[in-house]
Design a protein that fits this description.
single chain, 166 residues, mainly alpha, 2 strands, globular
Amino acid sequence: VTGVERIKATQQIFGNLVELFYSKLITTYGRAEVGKRDIPLLKYKQFLDIVYENGDYGFNHSRLSDIYMRCAKDQAQVMNKEKTLNYIKKSFIHIKEFVTMYTNKSVLKNTSFLVDRLEDDPSKWAFSNDINEYYKEFLTDLQIEIFDFIREDKEFKLIVEQLNKE
């Protein structure tokens, strides 16, 4: 393989490394002390930004949403209201972006240097169920007991309200 195909093959390795990093991180972050698990979890965002420095995350928006929700759950366990709400909001932003990309089926042309010859085609993302299941799962996450301490917060209610519309 030579030329553009070789560049694409090399760039695909960077995408694969991001996926590998995510899968290994979510199996190990639990070793960190409760209330400090957001620190290792956020390393995913740092790693992602090395490969996708222009924010052209594509499918990885779903991974970012998951990472931020895990951070929110961690901070909820120590009742850090500000951080919990911040992580929930970030998680919601990324799941909305992911669902929008999938619904629009617009091919994302990567612009970040390490992946600029690659495209992310949402029509090739495989799902066994309705894409709106992501919103339902998000809402289910917000219903868990550890979020009771912020349930009456205006920002929390607003996100729940938006989710119920989806």
